[in-house]
Amino acid sequence: MTTDTISQAIQRVRAVLMRRPQRAMHADDAAVARWEQDLRVVCHHENGTRIATDLPIELGGRGDRVTPGWLLRAGLASCLATRIAMAAAADGIALTRLEVQATSTSDVRGILGITGDLGEPVSAEPREVRLQVRIGAPGVPRERVQALVDESQRCSPVSAALGNAVPVVLQIELDPS
Predict the structure, then answer these.
(1) Which of 4, 82, 144, 146 shows the greatest Cβ crowding within 10 Å of its Cβ?
(2) pLDDT at 152
(3) What CATH number did the domain enclosing 99 receive?
């Protein structure tokens, strides 16, 4: 797709949603994770895409697949990059480079259920997540590019989910014995 095609698509959707905001809510595609063996899991999308995960050797995995935590960072980085590309296209900004790197720092004690020095549970979430955006937009003032990236992060669904701590509802179905 060209920048113009993307811009036109965004304008069409915006026009519809301005007239009918109720059409904005929709169910997102399910991600189905199926355990294979050991610590190996394969996530499935209804379009046929499959993503395999495992854990590092130190935690009992084989270490030859990405980890679920890496998928979180990949989702964060790709969602922000996509949103920046959308915003640039909508604003008529021609990008020559766009790369988003997501890194984090985590405490492995959380995934193992180990408690801290005072007996408190150690949380499993990353302690800090960092995003680094490398972007090229020749002829566009730095302030405009900065505003585009800032607004894109605010409007990135994955960034928003992490930043706003979206509630997670857990349901359990037990197979009959």
Answers:
(1) 82
(2) 97
(3) 3.30.300.20
Phi, psi of 47 (to 5 degrees): -85, 0
pLDDT at 131: 96
Which residue shows structure tokens 């270490």? 63
Q: Which domain holds residue 88?
A: 3-19+67-163
Whole-model pTM? Answer: 0.89
Assess whether pLDDT exceeds 70 at residue 126: yes
Band of residue 1 on the pLDDT scale cut at 50, 70, 90: low
For the record, the structure tokens of 51 come out as: 């993503």
| Angle at which helices 142-155 and 68-90 cross, to 10° | 130
Q: How far is Cα 151 from Cα 154, in angstroms, rounded to an integer?
A: 5
Is 130 domain-assigned? yes
